[in-house]
Amino acid sequence: MSVLSRMREDIANARSHDPAARSDVEIALAYSGLHAIWLYRIAHRWWISPGLRLPARLLSQFARFLTGVEIHPGARIGRRFFIDHGMGVVIGETTVIGDGVMLYHGVTLGGKSRGRGKRHPTLHDGVVVGAGAQVLGDIVLGARSVVGANAVVVKSAPPDSVLVGIPARDRRQDASPRAPETPSDEAWLDPGIYI
Q1: Is 21 helix (H, G, I), strand (E, B) or coil?
Q2: Is a pLDDT exceeding 70 seen at residue 178?
Q3: Are the C-beta atoms of residues 177 and 159 closer than 8 Å to each other?
Q4: 137, 113 Cβ separation under 8 angstroms
């Protein structure tokens, strides 16, 4: 997919998520979350290129200054990612984000340890994280899960979870536990699917 096609997809995605969007031009010029994502993509390319990690970090800090959104260039982010309002969002180095994920302002996808290796969360496709929520540590949120505003998530959750509170708990309508139907039902726990 070309850079221009990806940018068009991002603008269309922003329009689909934000009923206040009036035009593609407005989205392209005035959406700081979108600007942060575009700058992240450049920084990420530099990050994975030999000898360009320092320039990648400097660009990510410049993007933070401009947008109020801090995305480490080492994070891996899928398509149709949207940050609504943006200010105060922090995405750590080993975070993995699937396709169609949406974050609101003040979200932290952070670590809990100082060790090297995977220490930030993995969000599968279609996850929505509410304003001010904290998702911490090397945990996995299954596809289509929703994290409520100001929740603090420190444990992995299966697909279609509704996570609220401190610490966050799953509040789905059907809270009864079920046994996996097949071994593949537990595949959501594998953060390597996006790597």
Answers
A1: coil
A2: no
A3: no
A4: yes
